[in-house]
Specification:
EC 3.4.-.-; binds 2-acetamido-2-deoxy-beta-D-glucopyranose; Glucose Oxidase, domain 1; elongated; 13 strands; M28_fam; Peptide hydrolase; 13-stranded mixed sheet; Aminopeptidase; metalloexopeptidase activity; binds zinc ion; protease; 14 helices; 2 domains
Length: 486
């Protein structure tokens, strides 16, 4: 029988792959910068085609999910099992916000996330009341600040800073203000958009955030005894929407020993979310693609792409809150990756006392590549929180904030591909090591810092569910009202 050279070669390649052993060196060599560029290009393109973002509740998120699923579920169907975990959360969007000054002038204004709507179409027209400034304790953050300030039926003019914006707005509502005009602490219009968080729904008044100099000119007129009448219009929707976590795991490997890697797939509404946090998603997808080529490793490898991180770590908290005790015990390690391609990268690997050698594996590799990597704290800003609270050994790999953080310019130009490639290689190496040996990995810590944190998370989900019920009631009222006025 004659065999062609091509078929012999093919057989050789298949045999080589069939027995390929997953090692840190082998998988490091598989991670290619141009493949990462390709994935980032796709995510950027998805944002561009879907209204400029990949946020929770928006079509760009669903398209991002399809992109990940195409690989995991279709291309590598024989290697991985895939689960899509649905969950619901409160979606919000400000469609329009407008502040009109006493002389009929339009004022520059931004709307925070979860800003409640004013009556429409007219908004709120009311006299402005200046409120005291307390930069030390935060202006209008505490109840005593409101003593003797008459805001009933008025718009309160309040300085931003120190405490959460939602705290100031809660007091304003309790004291009977119709709304708040919040002014920035520093001059200019380049200020960030805060979130009031879904927890504040129903507890705050509408707000518009305006520049310092505009507020100062109004304060001067108020101080001179003039009545300053302002209009605030907020046209926003708040409603329940479904989103999804994507969980993909190797068919091979001991199901009682799971090494897990996660990144959030969603971005904010303000931009394409390419470094934050498309970079983590891209890194994971490349690692998954590489893992598909190996057959020999001991432990199960599980990947997670989380939804709605930007809305308060919702997807990952949902996942961790739904795990049974048994399922929790099977997860031996969790690696979280978020913003791993920052321009001007800072290689700070977040660890805590329960991270074992996970942080060292990344730091040592990055240092060997000439980077000044170091271990730092993990903070509470990303999807590791639910895992840390369960006592699972965890690290948080990232390359620091960038100047386009949560902005329109967080696009394909906002990536340092060298950093992204190095971080992905580091992540793949650490994963490969733990996929074969858990030496240097501590046991799950049963006495976590806060034993109530799990029940607290469950409580949060109940509270959100209640909020959603309230909101849908309000929505109905709004509709009736609209019909009457039309
Ligand atoms: C989300 O909400 C929809 C509509 O209320 C409901 O049908 C669905 O079952 C909910 N999904 C989850 C995961 O709770
Ligand atoms: C590394 C890093 O900064 N990641 C960010 C990804 O997005 C979340 C939510 O905005 C931030 O809190 C994280 O800090
Ligand atoms: Zn973010």
């Amino acid at each position: 029988m004659k065999t062609s050279l091509a078929s012999i070669l093919l057989l050789a390649v298949q045999m080589a792959w069939a027995t390929r052993i997953l090692t840190p060196d082998a998988i490091e060599a598989d991670i290619q910068e141009r493949e990462l560029q390709n994935v980032i290009w796709h995510l950027n393109h998805i944002a561009e085609k879907n209204g400029g973002n990949r946020a929770f509740g928006e079509p760009g998120y669903a398209a991002s999910m399809d992109f990940i699923l195409e690989r995991a579920r279709i291309r590598f169907a024989d290697k991985f099992d895939t689960f899509v975990q649905p969950f619901n959360h409160t979606y919000d969007k400000t469609n329009a916000i407008k502040v009109t000054g006493p002389d009929g002038e339009d004022v520059y204004v931004v709307s925070p996330q979860y800003n409640p709507a004013t009556p429409l179409p007219g908004g709120i027209t009311a006299g402005l009341v200046d409120t005291p400034v307390d930069d030390a304790r935060g202006s209008m953050c505490l109840e005593d600040h409101w003593a003797g300030v008459e805001v009933k039926g008025k718009l309160a003019l309040v300085k931003r800073g120190v405490c959460a914006v939602a705290d100031k707005l809660r007091w304003a509502k309790k004291k009977g203000a119709l709304g708040v005009i919040l002014y920035n602490q520093d001059p200019g219009t380049g200020y960030s958009v805060p979130t009031l968080s879904a927890d504040s729904i129903g507890e705050t008044v509408p707000v518009g955030i305006i520049p310092l100099d505009v507020a100062q000119s109004w304060q001067a007129r108020l101080a001179a005894g003039e009545e300053v009448v302002v209009n605030l219009l907020v046209d926003s929707i708040i409603e329940e929407r479904e989103s999804w976590n994507i969980i993909v795991e190797t068919k091979k490997g001991d199901p009682n020993k799971v090494v897990m890697l996660g990144a959030h797939l969603d971005g904010v509404q303000a931009g394409p979310g390419i470094n934050d946090n498309g970079s983590g998603s891209a890194g994971l997808l490349e690692i998954l693609t590489a893992v598909a080529h190996y057959d020999v490793f001991k432990h199960k490898i599980r990947f997670a792409w989380w939804g709605a991180e930007e809305n308060g770590l919702v997807g990952s908290l949902y996942y961790t809150s739904k795990l049974s005790e048994e399922e929790v015990n099977r997860i031996k390690y969790y690696f979280n990756y978020d913003m791993i391609g920052s321009p001007d990268p800072v290689y700070g690997i977040g660890v805590d006392e329960n991270s074992g050698i996970g942080g060292d594996l990344l730091v040592d590799y990055l240092v060997s590549k000439g980077k000044s990597a170091y271990k730092g704290g993990m903070g509470g800003g990303s999807d590791h929180v639910g895992f840390v609270n369960l006592g699972i050994p965890t690290i948080f790999g990232h390359t620091g904030l960038d100047t386009c953080y949560h902005q329109h310019c967080d696009n394909i130009n906002n990536i340092d591909f060298e950093a992204l490639t190095l971080m992905t290689k580091a992540a793949a190496r650490a994963m490969a090591q733990f996929a074969n040996s858990l030496e240097g990995v501590p046991e799950r810590k049963l006495f976590t810092r806060n034993p109530n944190s799990r029940s607290q998370i469950v409580k949060n989900f109940r509270r959100w569910a209640d909020v959603e019920k309230e909101v849908s009631k309000e929505k109905l009222c709004g509709h009736t009202h609209e019909k009457i006025t039309v």
